[in-house]
Amino acid sequence: MKHSIYPSSGDYNSLCFRERIPSAEKKIAPKPDTLARIQESPIWRMENEFYEFAVQQFHYVKHQTFDLVDGGYVEKGKPLTYARLRPTLSLRPLRKYLCSLLMPEFTICH
Could you give the CA distance from residue 100 to residue 94 in angstroms, rounded to a whole number? Predict the structure, then answer.
C-alpha cells in the first residue's frame, strides 16, 4: 500500500472498487452484417475519422518531442512552443479623426 494523506483510501479501493466494476461473463463478437451496418452510419464515420486524426496528431507530436535512443524514448532538447498571434490595431488614426470631428478648433488632440 502506498503512503497517502488519506490512509484508509487504499483499503477502500482494494475492498470496494473491484466489486463495483461489472465484468462480462461472455463476450460475444458482433456479426459481420451488424458491423457493416454500424460502419455505414455517418456518426461512426465521423468518429472513426476523428480517431484516425487524433492518432496521427499523437504520433506527430511524439516524433517532434522525443527521439528513439537504444529502444527508449528520450526527450529532445527544445520543447514545442505555441506562439499567440494577435492582430495589431492602432487606434491613433481613429482617435485623431474623432477629435477632429468633435473638437475642430483644436488641431492637436491627445
Answer: 10
The domain locations on the chain are: 30-76
CA 53 to each of CA 24, 47, 60: distance values in angstroms, whole numbers, following the listed order: 31, 10, 10
Does residue 88 carry a pLDDT above 60?
Answer: yes
pTM (predicted TM-score):
0.44
Contacts with 99 (C-beta within 8 Å, 6 or more apart), sequence order: 106, 109
Beta bridge partners of 68: 73
Q: pLDDT at position 21, please?
A: 65
Q: What is the mean pLDDT of residues 42-71?
A: 91
What would the grid cell of residue 37 be?
451496418
Residue 69: phi and psi, rounded to 5, are -130, 120
Q: Which among 58, 74, 77 is positioned nearest to 66, based on CA atoms? A: 74
Question: Quick check: helix, strand or coil at residue 4?
Answer: coil
Angle formed by the axes of helices 42-65 and 32-40, nearest 10°: 80
